[in-house]
Amino acid sequence: MKKVGRFFRHLCFLIPAVVAMILGFLLPHFPETTEKLFAQGFFRVVSVPIGGLVSCLPFSLTEVLAVLALPVLIFLLICLIRRLRRSSNRGKSLLRAGKGTGWVLSVAFLLYMLLHGLNFYRLPVGTLMELETVDFTAEQLRDVCIDLADQASMERESLTEDGSGCVRLSQSIGETLRLADNGYRNLQDTYPFLFGGVFRAKPVQLSHWWSYTGITGMYFPMLAEANVNIDVPDSSIPATAAHELAHTRGFAREDECNFLAYLTCINSDSADYRYSGLLMAYIYCSNALYDYDTELWGETRAACSDGVRRDLEERNRYWENFEGKVQEISNNVNNSFLQSQGQESGVLSYSEVVSLIVSYSIQQGKI
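^ that's the sequence the OP posted. Answer follows.
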């Protein structure tokens, strides 16, 4: 019995991870319970205060930790090697270090699930907004695209341009990112589930190198921090910031975060955000239409102003500079991660926002 007890004591570091796996196995079958107890319960109680405090810092704490991670790991490895050299029982010392590492990873996994992972299993945003699921036609999608192109073209008229005729943010990057929650606050009375404590996204200083991964933004659940790539064309920055803030509001599915980015951007007091959200929505919808009918897609492209078309071309040119193996590996890793969280379409789930945009357009009587 003593040997059995000792065996289980050695494995007790797995308890947090086992709890996380049990929750991940059970809760997908009970979205209402997940919504009430975790998304609207535990997540708000714990994550909202953390996010509010971290938002007070003007820099990305996530980036700081990422930069420090490698030297800290090297330092810990050196300490372990020195301890093993001095130890009279290296096997016992190594086992102790392994258990310590196991506890850190196991607790981190449980915290990830409680602060983000379980939000994959909450009620869909379409259900929360009472959007009807519709099988839309290519003609309806064309009408949505034209409406988005018209609105984007109109919003762009008040924005500034650079020497190449591409749109530029009307405020500094810091001031722009501080406005990321404006649309959320404007909609909180209508949609109380958009409540949150994070009031701005954070600029990543190593953004240029980050672009080689093809990533424009990242949410770090442990800090409830929304991080944004600021090296990308200005037209995409506000929508990316709004997307990452959707994660801080307890939404994990990428298509829903894209939709909430669109929804909050068009309800923002900032023309930069309104234009960026409309342009993002147009890109997703027009790309989907192109797969349906290239002729109808051409009609939507014609509805874009010259300025909008220049911004679209700028985006394409920018990302062409970063194509390569690193981006391919990053995409595969992200794809595998999303699929492990129940999003079977992986990175393609980002583009599933189209159905939500069309449903919302029908609900609002736009088509």
